[in-house]
Amino acid sequence: MGKGQRHSKNAGVMGCEALSYSERRALGFGTVKERLGKDSIGNFDDCCLTLQAAVDPVVTPEGHLYSKEAILENLLAQKKAIRKRVVAFEAQQQAASDKTQHTAAVHEAAQLIAFDRQNHMGISETTATNLKKAIEHEDAVAQEPGGVKSVVAIRDNADRMEGLKAFWMPSCGPKGLAVVAPPPDLDTHCPASGKKLRMKDLVQMRFTKVRDGEEGKYMDPVTKDNFTNASKLIVLLPTGDVVLKETYEKCIKPDGKYNGTRVRPKDVVELKTSGTGFSARDGDKGQSSKHWTLGPGSGRQDLRGQHASARSLGGLVMNN
User: Coil, helix or strand for 235?
Assistant: First the structure.
């Protein structure tokens, strides 16, 4: 029965030994990695929003390519959503201000009533204090959603709610905390990178088409080499021209000029490689990974040890 105490459920005996690394991998533990295939990589001229060939292409300062119409519609939709959030936030602030003013007015009125009763009716200071608290409490209850308007109605409503066992009704459930909306963000953002993006930050791009009768779609305006999905492309922001990264490094960067136009290092953006709707892929990220917590007890593998079944779905052969 192995070492240790003679008990069938003792860990470490009866075929319940610890799993090795290969066994854990076979059972599905750990991080699964997979290299992205061609289907997960878009074409170099695809729009990041429509996932189709960009029409009237523009590029962001981070190098994401969009169709001009698509990105402008997206930014306008963001602005409309921002205006709605601003209106909701202002209404919430106004409601909070009105509530504060109302509470202060009720507190002042309660103090006047308590003072009047104490000085003209001869009630004690304790009774006057309790009267003031009762007035403030009644007002606070009346301000709640579904609140009642008088002390008698408060008592009647409480008695009725105790006898009513309709827990599914909103009025019978616990009162939730008021949701305080944070100040809205007034900036529009790039759908791909999430960074701040304004309409004036977009730069019009100019692809050089290949000559008639040649294969391909676009080419480098300097070397006349065709662009492919494996090409590293550079956008020259002053002119909007798209060239190969190798062309920029060898022909444009040393002189700092292109067709008589000054091109500084900060005026250069590397075009991001777009992804499909199945998987995002930017830059050199050509591998996808995900952590899976699987194994015994997940319902996908047979148990081991004294409760083991006749076979293993993980490809393990146990010689117990």
Answer: strand
Distance in angstroms (rounded) separating the CA atoms of residues 208 and 227: 10
The confidence band for 87, taking pLDDT boundaries of 50, 70 and 90, is very high
* Cα distance between residue 226 and residue 200, in whole Å: 30
Neighbours of 162 (CB within 10 A): 8
CA distance linking residue 119 with residue 69, whole number of Å:
75
Nearest-angstrom CA–CA distance, 61 and 197: 9
Paired strand residues for 30: 292
Q: What angle do CA 120, 122, 125 make, to 5 degrees?
A: 110
Close Cβ partners of 172 (under 8 Å, ≥ 6 residues apart)? 161, 164, 166
Query: What is the Cα–Cα distance from 67 to 51, expressed in whole angstroms?
Result: 10
> Could you give the CA distance from residue 212 to residue 215 in angstroms, rounded to a whole number?
9
Burial of 185-215, coded b for 16+ CB within 10 Å and e otherwise, reads: eeebebbbbeeebeeeebbebebeebeeeee
Tens digits of residue pLDDT in 126-176: 887 887 888 777 777 666 655 544 445 555 666 665 666 665 665 555 555
